[in-house]
Amino acid sequence: MNSTDTTLGTAGGGTDRRRWFALAIVMTAAFMDLVDVTIVNIAIPSIQREAGASFSQIQWITAGYALAFAAGLITGGRLGDIHGRKRVFLVGIGGFTVASALCGLAVNPEMLVASRFLQGGMAALMVPQVLSIVHATFPAHERGKVFGLFGAVVGLGAVSGPLLGALLTEWNLFGWEWRSIFLINLPVGVAGLILGSRFISESKAPRALKLDLVGVALVTLGLLMLLYPLIRGRELDWPVWGYVSMAGSLVVLAALVAYERRKAARDGSPLVELSLFKVKSFAAGIAVQTVFGVALGVFFLVWTLYMQFGLGWSPLKAGLTGVPFSIAVSVAAGMSVQKLVPRFGRKVLQAGALVMAAGVLLYIWEAGHYGLAIAPWQMALPLVVMGVGMGLIVAPLTDAILSEVPREHAGSASGLINTVQQMGNALGLGLVSVVFFGTISDHLRPEQIGPAFADAFQNALCWVAAVMGAIFLLMFALPKRPAQHVEGEQVPVGEKEPVLVS
């Protein structure tokens, strides 16, 4: 983390009460982003029915946001360092609000997909500034309390997103149907824009790195070449150009590595700090984060499709079914950081992978045993087990990855961690075409839809369980006990925003 930030105005003063207003504003923005990721999943079937979106377009509605968010995270952080975090934050929250309006007013699925890409890009400008503003605004002795509040916001976002999406879709406010899940961002975004311009003090990094736009372009191109054929392949009967594109994506990503190596030697400002991968625990942790993102991307989308299309449940019933999972994640995350990891170290994360895999296998068994008659209370046990496993992983994983990284690279490393998490999520959403829709016939009679979606759900969960097993093995390369960070320098565990991208 850069400890020599230039803070303009009185933001750094410990007696400035305005900093708490600034904190409330940036936390609201972070909450808005967290909710917007989860709120969409529960409304997807309604979007599919009302907007006439194809299943590949449904995947793009979720994957497009994740891809644009991932591609822009590091660049968004550096723009804040160069041009001022307040300025870029306000541009981000303003753009996010406009993109939300475009999503809510979309006249066809194509416009909705394009607006989601824009929304993800604007979130990439907004989110990296949040903790950078906190770092520049609060003295070190107060940051522990502030980071604790952020942890609460993360947990609240995880619980409230699906419920809020279900309620808004079910209530059909003003006849907006699914559109209200996007339009609700408008008053929040406008308020954040007005109050942020008044209460947030400007700050910059005095020696900010240059932008690596070529690196961003290569990352985005490589991922699009990989994801587009995955998402459209089944619909287009897997054309030859799709395989060529996926193979070509590896060439583009290899070109990215070569370019980043040359750029690091030339001016020391690459998009990806390749020297970090010489640290074994960091390289392994990045692999864990990416693969974990893939598993979550697959699970959350197919879970929604299974409950609402396969079982015919309403959005509210599906949203309430997920509450035990969200609560279990939040409780286990708190326990893992405060009680378990300090005592047992890496074993807690590995136990989390095995527990989550056990929950997935239990879910597969129940889905097969109870069939289409399965009830929400019967899902509670596997969901709680999965939630406990996920909570044991998500909270301490960032610290485990960063524990052996040189402190001067902590900002770049944390930005990269969050970027690959989002990229893994986008890849998982793309793989839904293969592991879920790949097992469903194109021509189903109404009575065949439920059983077909239930079978596809079980197939997808088998893949998720296998991925969790792979994550367990990868975790052996993590340090046995993550090193302790100095107060005020720690990347808040469980938080997906980079502390400072510099």
Automatic annotation (TrEMBL):
Keywords: Antibiotic resistance, Cell membrane, Membrane, Transmembrane, Transmembrane helix, Transport
Membrane topology type: Multi-pass membrane protein
PROSITE patterns, per database record: MFS (PS50850)
Primary location group: membrane
Spans traversing the lipid bilayer: 20-44, 56-76, 88-107, 113-134, 146-168, 180-201, 213-231, 243-260, 281-306, 318-336, 348-365, 377-402, 423-440, 460-478
Subcellular localization: Cell membrane
Protein name: MFS transporter
Gene Ontology molecular-function annotations: transmembrane transporter activity
InterPro entries per record: EmrB-like (IPR004638), MFS (IPR011701), MFS_dom (IPR020846), MFS_trans_sf (IPR036259)
Record domain Major facilitator superfamily (MFS) profile: where: 22-481
Keyword Secreted: no
SUPFAM superfamilies hit by this protein: MFS general substrate transporter (SSF103473)
Biological process per Gene Ontology, one example term: response to antibiotic
GO cellular component, one term: plasma membrane
Gene3D superfamilies: MFS general substrate transporter like domains (1.20.1250.20), Multidrug resistance protein D (1.20.1720.10)
